[in-house]
């Protein structure tokens, strides 16, 4: 067993879960919205890379474009989708309870999945996105791929940028105030719709980055590809503590570590059930820490 290889694989997998959990945690903190359609935002971002067609063969929409332009276009697509969804669906439900918001996001998730099937077809598609990043080098017995380095580096950079935005910028401070006490923040002059729109846009950027990194790793598209990511991201927010952005990130990395360890240490005949072992361990953790590792007192009081 190569411990260094396990740590690297865990950090790479946990990075994706941490970004998904952070995107979910932003909306949970500000809007009390558990956005079950977050995974479908990832799916839409991934499918925006190819030409709309129901054919089995996919063709890159941004063939020959610089990587930064590709990432920018995917971000624009997902941000526009998130803002349209906020304005058209969630804005009329601002005063609704948590259950209604969750059901609305559940319906949105199915709508987006079926919309993708109608436009692109239901069959999975292959896509060649920066496949050269998958080539690795041996370093002291550890196989390091450029894609793993990119994933971990991008995640670290985004966490720093999001943390800086929330701490030092006016809109970030307003988002933190709204997350602490939304009603009081509005009474003090914070524009609620503006803050919520910013939270949706920031969550969409994180979803777009995840979609690009995930497609680069798997080389495949399917209409439900974002659902498992959103599921593990949501579990990460619960394990970390609902409403705690720090907890969401830690929870994401923790789930990545646990799944990688199960993948490495379980006998071959049990490795296909690593998710079941992971969920069992999560249930055990929540029995002792039902509010998560970093519970947010303000969110618990509000909910």
Write the layout of secondary structure elements.
Blueprint: H1 3-31, H2 38-47, H3 67-90, H4 98-120, E1 125-126, E2 136-139, E3 142-145, H5 146-168, H6 170-180, H7 182-187, H8 192-218, E4 220-221, H9 226-240, H10 245-265, H11 274-288, H12 297-302
Antiparallel strand pairs: 1-4, 2-3
Helix pairs in contact: 1-5, 1-6, 1-8, 1-9, 1-10, 2-3, 2-4, 2-8, 2-9, 3-8, 5-6, 5-8, 6-8, 9-10, 10-11
Describe this structure in words.
Belongs to the binding-protein-dependent transport system permease family. LivHM subfamily. The chain is mainly alpha-helical and 303 residues long. It is built from 12 helices and 4 strands. Strands 1-4 form a two-stranded antiparallel ribbon. It has a two-stranded antiparallel sheet with strand order 2-3. Helices cover 69% and strands 4% of the residues. The radius of gyration is 19 Å and the shape is globular. The protein has one domain: ABC transporter involved in vitamin B12 uptake, BtuC (Orthogonal Bundle), CATH 1.10.3470. The mean pLDDT is 83.
């Amino acid at each position: 067993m190569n411990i260094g290889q396990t740590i690297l694989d865990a950090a790479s997998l946990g990075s994706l879960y941490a970004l998904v959990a952070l995107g979910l945690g932003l909306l949970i903190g500000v809007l009390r919205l558990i956005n079950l359609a977050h995974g479908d935002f990832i799916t839409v971002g991934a499918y925006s890379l190819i030409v709309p067609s129901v054919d089995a063969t996919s063709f890159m929409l941004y063939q020959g474009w610089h990587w930064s332009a590709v990432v920018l276009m995917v971000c624009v697509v997902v941000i526009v989708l998130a803002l349209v969804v906020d304005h058209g669906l969630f804005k009329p439900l601002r005063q609704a309870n948590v259950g209604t918001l969750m059901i609305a996001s559940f319906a949105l998730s199915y709508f987006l999945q079926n919309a993708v099937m109608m436009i692109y077809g239901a069959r999975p598609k292959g896509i060649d996105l920066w496949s050269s990043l998958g080539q690795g080098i041996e370093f002291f017995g550890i196989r390091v791929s450029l894609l793993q380095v990119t994933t971990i580096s991008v995640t670290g950079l985004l966490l720093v940028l999001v943390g800086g935005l929330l701490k030092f910028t006016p809109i970030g401070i307003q988002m933190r105030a709204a997350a602490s006490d939304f009603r009081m923040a509005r009474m003090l002059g914070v524009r609620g719709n503006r803050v919520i729109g910013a939270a949706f846009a920031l969550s969409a950027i994180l979803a777009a980055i995840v979609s690009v990194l995930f497609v680069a790793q798997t080389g495949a598209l399917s209409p439900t590809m974002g659902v498992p990511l959103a599921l593990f991201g949501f579990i990460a927010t619960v394990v970390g503590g609902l409403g705690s952005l720090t907890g969401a990130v830690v929870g994401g990395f923790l789930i990545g570590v646990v799944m990688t360890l199960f993948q490495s240490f379980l006998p071959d005949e049990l490795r296909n059930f690593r998710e079941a072992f992971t969920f069992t361990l999560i249930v055990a953790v929540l029995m002792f820490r039902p509010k998560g590792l970093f519970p947010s007192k303000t969110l618990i009081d509000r909910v």
